[in-house]
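#struct-help
A.M.: can someone run this one for me? Single chain, 170 residues.
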Amino acid sequence: MRLLAAIITLALLGTAGLAGHALWVMSGMAGPQARSVLLSAPKMPNRARQADPEQGAPESSAPIVARHWPPLFGEPQPPAPPQAQPSAPTQTAAPPKPPLESLGYTLNGVVQTDTGVWAMVGHPAGGRLLRKGDNLEPGIIVTRIDARGLWVSRYDDPPELLAFPEKPLQ
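D.P.: on it. Structure tokens below:
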């Protein structure tokens, strides 16, 4: 009885090994030589199976069935190429700067003395007394003061006029 159990165990173990090998070949991980073990050629006499040098190798008439499962999570994709950086940044026109009056500044008066010309500028935060070369705000410099008003340059742009406010006639 024990001998019979040992023989059956060895037979089942061999069958399990063959089934595992067949599964490995069908999964596509085996090389072409391992596939030839499973895909047997049709039965032919030995004479017909030998290759003639003029004919080349004999061809099998049995169709080879593709035994590949479709990928479960899709095909692996190659990494996307990096997007090219623009070689030169395009310069867009800067939006127009708001008028000086919209910043809250008004020219209240001009004073001329022996030492120079001064302008009195009003602002909601408080009035200031300025002369040529002073900063009204960071980046806004007084370039000249004349009878028409106060000329300022914003960030080295051409000078702009901050004129006296026009008073309505009463």
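A.M.: thanks! The chain has a mean pLDDT of 78.
D.P.: also worth noting: The longest strand covers residues 106-113.
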